[in-house]
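Input/output pair, single chain:
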Amino acid sequence: MTNERKNLHVKTGDRVIVTAGKDKGKIGNIKKSIPTEGKVVVEGINMITKATKANPAYGIQGGLIKKEAPLDSSNVMIVCPSCEKPTRIKHAVVDGKKVRVCKKCGEQLDV
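Output:
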């Protein structure tokens, strides 16, 4: 596997809706993006249960913990803050800067 960076259409902190998989239709904020793998971690979505071993030296308690697993970035769609609809994005130049714009209402996503 190469460490080639993929351009993601979403950024950390964006509000997104899941468009495919077991969590289809759920909305959450992006907690972390992983551009080298083309994946994103969304808060409260794609939860997995992981068994952890106790490590008293570091104060880690053993047991089952729930955490978010990465989703492929193609399975999420950005939700426009102004029109509250899932939308694609287009890029426009405003005041010499490239910004992301909602395709449905034309509102800027980068504030």
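The chain has no helices and ten strands. Residues 81-111 form one domain.
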